[in-house]
Design a protein that fits this description.
The structure is a homodimer.
Chain A lengths: L3 E5 L11 H12 L3 E6 L1 H4 L2 H4 L9 E4 L2 E4 L1 H11 L8 H24 L2 H15 L12 H10 L6 H4 L2 H12 L1 H8 L2 H7 L6 E5 L3
Parallel strand pairs in A: 1-2, 2-5
Antiparallel strand pairs in A: 1-3, 3-4
Helix pairs in contact in A: 1-4, 1-7, 1-10, 5-6, 5-7, 7-9
């Protein structure tokens, strides 16, 4: 049975893919794993049956057989460890890829949320320095760490703070250009559903069903 | 060769174990892996040779052979996946344990950092509801998710906000009572070094050496 991923019925960002469910769809598209979507409205996210799956009433929820997961970082890591394609082969490189996931969600993302421009500027300069002229943080191959880092940086892409760094701008652009990302972003569930497109990798259902 | 973990030469918290290096030592103590400590001062953390290891100039750094990791969450997860003792046997339970790590560092910790009491109260109520009467989040067995969640909640333990929840207070206390935690906390490196205690699991060195 294919994994089921929750998705906003009416994404507050107007479909720009800035919400955390996008990361999960992106990961599934990268590994080529078919999945289903489950539409959820804001009022449904406050209902006891949803809170049973996601105790903080947030997005997203991931269901695969008897396993229910929340926290986009945990879900993306689960997908990367369960299906091939998002983690390097060597054990040290795997640990470093996972390190960049944590750097994204526990250093960069809180720094963005803090609203402190000076602090964020410093962190982004440090980040750009590590990236150097590499395409991805672990070199030639895109990994789960890049998926999370690009996801976390994307909402800054039109801001002056990211425009100060050519490297990080390019990095985000390279992430967005990936076919798997485009599939996750450009075929949002509402479009797919109304287009009548037949896509064997995707099925949709309502949460309330 | 044993892993080497960086540690504050002069911990700003006065040795209460609230800094992120404590989590790493705790994890190593839980799995029974001998390790060495590397003292670092604040001025050394700004030096290029330290920034080469930890690009954000933060604590901690973990070195194991050719592998260098930063981000306490990534290090703790690496230890849990590398050495037995901190992850459940079943694949679903493993993924859920890792989920609680991400909930700690990406939902609860940023919520504490936000300084919004109302928001934090709500999150802690939701957390206590999931914990219920269980000892740990995955039931009977302590896991890497509990290690991170207890670490994140500990700084709140004398606050009114945690005192509102008997469950979470007990949960933090159960974590702190673990022998491995006590070893990580109560034998801080300065004490061990000056006591002349011979501990085959521990050696210390200076970063600058």
């Amino acid at each position: 049975m294919n994994p089921v991923v929750s998705v906003f019925r009416h994404p507050p960002d107007g479909g720009r893919g800035y919400h955390r469910d996008t990361r999960v769809r992106w990961a599934l598209e990268e590994v080529g794993q078919p999945y289903s979507l489950r539409y959820v409205t804001f009022s449904e996210m406050r209902r006891p049956d949803y809170m049973q799956l996601q105790p903080f009433g947030q997005m997203p929820v991931y269901q695969e057989g008897d396993l229910t997961l929340f926290e986009s970082g945990a879900i993306v890591l689960h997908i990367a460890q369960r299906f091939a394609g998002l983690l390097p082969g060597g054990p040290d490189a795997r640990s470093r890829s996972i390190m960049w996931m944590f750097a994204a969600v526990n250093t960069i993302e809180p720094c963005i949320a803090s609203g402190s421009v000076g602090y964020l500027e410093q962190r982004l300069q440090q980040l750009a320095l590590v990236l150097g002229e590499k395409t991805w943080f672990e070199g030639e191959d895109f990994s789960v760490g890049d998926l999370m880092m690009v996801s976390v940086l994307r909402p800054l892409k039109d801001s002056d703070i990211l425009k100060q760094s050519r490297r990080l701008q390019n990095y985000v652009a390279c992430g967005e250009e990936r076919e798997a990302f485009q599939r996750a972003l450009n075929a949002p569930p509402s479009v797919r559903r109304t287009s009548g497109r037949s896509d064997e990798n995707l099925s949709v259902e309502n949460f309330a069903l």
